[in-house]
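Recall from the previous chapter that SMILES is a line notation for molecules. Here it describes flavin-adenine dinucleotide.
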Amino acid sequence: MSEPIEVRVPDIGDFTDVPVIELHVSAGDEVAAEDPLVTLESDKATMDVPSPVAGVIAQLSVKIGDRVSEGSVLLTIDPAGGAGEGEGEPAAPAPEAEEPGPKAEEPAPTAGEPAPKAEEPAPTGDYECDVVVIGSGPGGYTAAFRAADLGLKTVLVERHATLGGVCLNVGCIPSKALLHAARVIAEVQEMRERGITFGEPELDVAKLIAWKQSVVDKLTGGLAGMARARKVEVITGEARFSGPHELDIAGERKLTFANCIIAAGSEAARLPGMPDDERIIDSTGALSPDDVPARLLVIGGGIIGLEMATVYDALGSRVTVVEALDQLIPGCDADVVKPLHKRISERYEAIHLSTKVASIEPSGEGLRVELDSGATETYDRVLVAVGRRANGNALNAGAAGVEVDERGVIATDRQMRTNVPHIYAIGDVTPGPMLAHKASHEGRVAAEVIAGDKSAAFDARAVPAVAYTDPEVAWMGLTETAARERGVEYERASFPWAASGRALTIDRAEGMTKLLLEPGSRRVLGAAVVGPNAGELIAETVLALELGADAEDIALTIHAHPTLSETVAFAAEVAEGTITDLPPQRKGRR
Ligand SMILES: Cc1cc2nc3c(=O)[nH]c(=O)nc-3n(C[C@H](O)[C@H](O)[C@H](O)COP(=O)(O)OP(=O)(O)OC[C@H]3O[C@@H](n4cnc5c(N)ncnc54)[C@H](O)[C@@H]3O)c2cc1C
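With both inputs in hand, we obtain:
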């Protein structure tokens, strides 16, 4: 058994007495070599102190806020307790797969999870490719392109004829194209109250859907071109493992690989007991309608359901939403969802919270839906948007020894390795929020690890979530709901858009920008925005979190006037007690 190792502050230049701003480990945690242990901050930068070895944390010698200098002992590691470099621990259990959007308790979905067991060294056999990627969604194509750019011989296997996965074909992109059309219609209608009246919109559904498809085709065609330019071999067919280094593709071809990245994504979850009727659709069906139903029931008040409701409401459907939980967009703070709820309750036929669908009976008249409250109504179409299910169970992953849980989720470590060291998993098939930007970020990590970058790891502090509803709802990092559940202390500062000149000029005073800050340091821990363009505005707060910025940094950053981005600075000024765009605050700091 080896002696415990003291981890000390390395050479940090001329700095002394720098504060410890983050502890990534606790006593008893197992760590791999290079895992970040402690984050220090000087005037110039923040710096992670990595673990020199794999092992178990025996004792912490510092806490957050302590000041340290070169040579100060940070903690002690027992190297005998952990695995050697490149080895690790069993993969963590995967959380429930639900909707796009982080769950309240995340920020970093995979960061910090233990590494799975490494049972073999890097593969050295005679394989047909260095890396094969299964699935060409935002996770898969990013991983394949990055791997090729790093000099690896790369093959991308996709069961569909077009690349791009759910996101490009039947997810993010087509939904946002239709949401753009919806916004134009809504804005034109709103201008009636402001002195400009256009005629009623004349809808050519076939033309609208053709335009949406042309956007999709442009992007998916672009991917095919970029794959060719990188010499990534694209194989069309369904891949299944037939061994630890071998895939069977559509029962027609075998492919041997040194490394594999599983990016098989997810599919819409089904509600049990639904009758088989073409008027009951999922999000894919909702994105390519032949016509606009007069009455639409949306089952599921999460992001996908509400985005589709936004589209159909603008196109002229009378929309009802049924949500089993007591809030729309569960996981997001209630005060942030409130302006959206208020606006859509005025536009939609009904919103039922804490309600489930008991039964659906198809007839010539429509779909007769009974709710568990006993109410019955007949709709022309029913959209089921109750979450998504990971695709891990259709890969015959057991043939390669890869563990998949009963929900189809594949657990990984921070380097995206599964329990089989040369097989990685990324995106919707892994734990965490089902979001395209999480998938692509993980794809890069997996490719870089395979290319030999030992420091590559998923260490993002937050994955932002956006509902592109009207108004948009966006949040990142800590939420108040999660803070209360976990007993995390925070300061809250919010700015109402009713006091934003820009919000008034676009006639959208209902918005709100909120920052959650660490008490004392006022570092950004989380943020949320509701209002038009919230999805763009949240980016500044994610950057602030990643850089360890505090409210003063944001408040002293000059934001152009009049913009909605000012509301982020104004919220920071509220925290600082320096706000002049609101009536005098009771507790001014300066
Ligand atoms: C309507 C809708 C709107 C959305 N909007 C957003 C949004 O605005 N922003 C956002 O971030 N996210 C959004 N999402 C979620 C987003 O689409 C997913 O998070 C993202 O596509 C996941 O990427 P991925 O690479 O993990 O998998 P996917 O995009 O699901 O791609 C997986 C690919 O793997 C292929 N595949 C699976 N198994 C095999 C196999 N055995 N062999 C070969 N190929 C296989 C599939 O055919 C698919 O092409 C939306 C989803 C939906 C449904």
